[in-house]
Amino acid sequence: MTDRTVPQIPGIRCLPEVEVYLKQQVSAILRTRPNTFPGSQPISFTREHLHRNLMTRDYLVCEKSDGLRVLLFVLVNPDTNEEGTFLISRENEYYHIADFHFPRSAKNFDQSHNGTIIDGELVYSTNPVTKVKEIRYLIFDCLAMDMTSVMHKNLLKRLYHAQQEFHHPYIQLRRKFPDACKDWPFKLDFKNMTQPFKIHRIFDEMKNLTYVSDGLILTCCDTPYISGTDTTLLKWKPAEENTIDFKIGLEFPTFVDTDLPKHDPNREYTNYDVKPKFKLYVWKGGDDPFKHETVEDNIKRNGGEYRSSFANYDEWNDLVVTDEQWESMKNSGESFNGRIAECRQNKDGEWEFLRFRDDKLNGNHINVVLKILKSIEDAVTKEEIIALEPQIKAAWEERERMRQKAQQQQQNFVQKSQQKLPNSVPEKRKFEDQDETAVKKLNSERNKVPIVAATGGDNDNDEFYESDGFEEEPSKI
């Protein structure tokens, strides 16, 4: 079976007072609520999205890594002028990563980022040269750049900030000073992204990845970054890879010693030596009333035995655990009751265990579970998406023609307006000159991408955003 181990967040959890301060800083920069994770969340891809989204809007596509989603936050301490690097988990917990440095420019490595927030995912990657398993942070979006939110900008602009202003200076620093960077806890890479009418290239690339990938992420080019659920951000997985996070409950049988009298308190006891029933519980939402309870208070409340809380959870189904799996679990010495487990259905409709998700406080909400089940039932295959590429390309090119036509009409309007202006109104002329400059800037905006213009060209080798090739030069970065 593929190793689906999720990396633990490196670094040290911030002290409560530090975490409060950092949340306030992020909230001030992004204009989001301080007590909620500011990152976006995708919805599951269904058949209706084939035509409602991919045929009517511009999207970029990248593979979906099977890792740990975290935001990367770089902030300079205003009192000490020290640079701090922090990872923000989906539970909105902040972890400090010591000794990292992210230069603001490739020309001046001393100046650091301050108030920059990047979106990405931590994965275990096997170095193709050394075969060593290492942690990588894969960048795929940007929320803020130097104390200024860029969430309102379109995807192309956000990716430009992330790649050219954040990732590129970092790469140059590592290449120029490899020894100084060798002990950093993880390396950064930039996810390959391309148009959906070249989606076959992403599928081909997934075969050669150095980490586990279980699907696709499709991001709309023309919408802002949405904190929380983004209905334009789509997550596609093959039916067999659609998973759900449940809370596990273990039910051990009660053993009755018939040799003892009925009134003997030792006559009945829980038999922990046999395999229990594994129950899956689905989260209904809301806070656990016992979330902050101490171990001592839990034991006292439960009559001398520690028990996991299943408040706000309903029993959903059974989890199939083989005798071999149970023996392995027992030998590990770990506790399993009350943990969040990622599960999937097999061809017989049974739920199977994939891995524990200790990075999550709760399983998937019941509404999310129902949507995932609908996605499984209404599954769109890889072959169906690839077969639609010619139609997606034709629709993309038609939208591009319409945009160019509209831009040309704006240019003509501005030029005609300037011709009619009298020379005796210099202030008005100055204003219209600025207007023309703005229009020219608008015309070139969609072409401001690092690799190629967003025109959907015929060259199948063109890519929008691609990594700097760590697989070819692992020793340099």
Automatic annotation (TrEMBL):
<keyword id="KW-0539">Nucleus</keyword>
<dbReference type="GO" id="GO:0004484">
    <property type="term" value="F:mRNA guanylyltransferase activity"/>
</dbReference>
<comment type="similarity">
    <text>Belongs to the eukaryotic GTase family.</text>
</comment>
<keyword id="KW-0548">Nucleotidyltransferase</keyword>
<keyword id="KW-0506">mRNA capping</keyword>
<dbReference type="Pfam" id="PF03919">
    <property type="entry name" value="mRNA_cap_C"/>
</dbReference>
<dbReference type="GO" id="GO:0005524">
    <property type="term" value="F:ATP binding"/>
</dbReference>
<dbReference type="InterPro" id="IPR013846">
    <property type="entry name" value="mRNA_cap_enzyme_C"/>
</dbReference>
<feature type="compositionally biased region" description="Basic and acidic residues">
    <location>
        <begin position="426"/>
        <end position="448"/>
    </location>
</feature>
<feature type="domain" description="mRNA capping enzyme C-terminal">
    <location>
        <begin position="241"/>
        <end position="386"/>
    </location>
</feature>
<feature type="active site" description="N6-GMP-lysine intermediate">
    <location>
        <position position="64"/>
    </location>
</feature>
<feature type="compositionally biased region" description="Acidic residues">
    <location>
        <begin position="459"/>
        <end position="477"/>
    </location>
</feature>
<dbReference type="GO" id="GO:0006370">
    <property type="term" value="P:7-methylguanosine mRNA capping"/>
</dbReference>
<comment type="function">
    <text>Second step of mRNA capping. Transfer of the GMP moiety of GTP to the 5'-end of RNA via an enzyme-GMP covalent reaction intermediate.</text>
</comment>
<dbReference type="GO" id="GO:0005525">
    <property type="term" value="F:GTP binding"/>
</dbReference>
<dbReference type="GO" id="GO:0031533">
    <property type="term" value="C:mRNA capping enzyme complex"/>
</dbReference>
<keyword id="KW-0507">mRNA processing</keyword>
<comment type="subunit">
    <text>Heterodimer. The mRNA-capping enzyme is composed of two separate chains alpha and beta, respectively a mRNA guanylyltransferase and an mRNA 5'-triphosphate monophosphatase.</text>
</comment>
<keyword id="KW-0808">Transferase</keyword>
<dbReference type="Pfam" id="PF01331">
    <property type="entry name" value="mRNA_cap_enzyme"/>
</dbReference>
<feature type="region of interest" description="Disordered">
    <location>
        <begin position="402"/>
        <end position="477"/>
    </location>
</feature>
<dbReference type="InterPro" id="IPR001339">
    <property type="entry name" value="mRNA_cap_enzyme_adenylation"/>
</dbReference>
<keyword id="KW-0342">GTP-binding</keyword>
<feature type="compositionally biased region" description="Low complexity">
    <location>
        <begin position="405"/>
        <end position="420"/>
    </location>
</feature>
<keyword id="KW-0547">Nucleotide-binding</keyword>
<dbReference type="InterPro" id="IPR051029">
    <property type="entry name" value="mRNA_Capping_Enz/RNA_Phosphat"/>
</dbReference>
<protein>
    <recommendedName>
        <fullName>mRNA-capping enzyme subunit alpha</fullName>
        <ecNumber>2.7.7.50</ecNumber>
    </recommendedName>
</protein>
<dbReference type="InterPro" id="IPR012340">
    <property type="entry name" value="NA-bd_OB-fold"/>
</dbReference>
<dbReference type="InterPro" id="IPR017075">
    <property type="entry name" value="mRNA_cap_enzyme_alpha"/>
</dbReference>
<feature type="domain" description="mRNA capping enzyme adenylation">
    <location>
        <begin position="41"/>
        <end position="237"/>
    </location>
</feature>
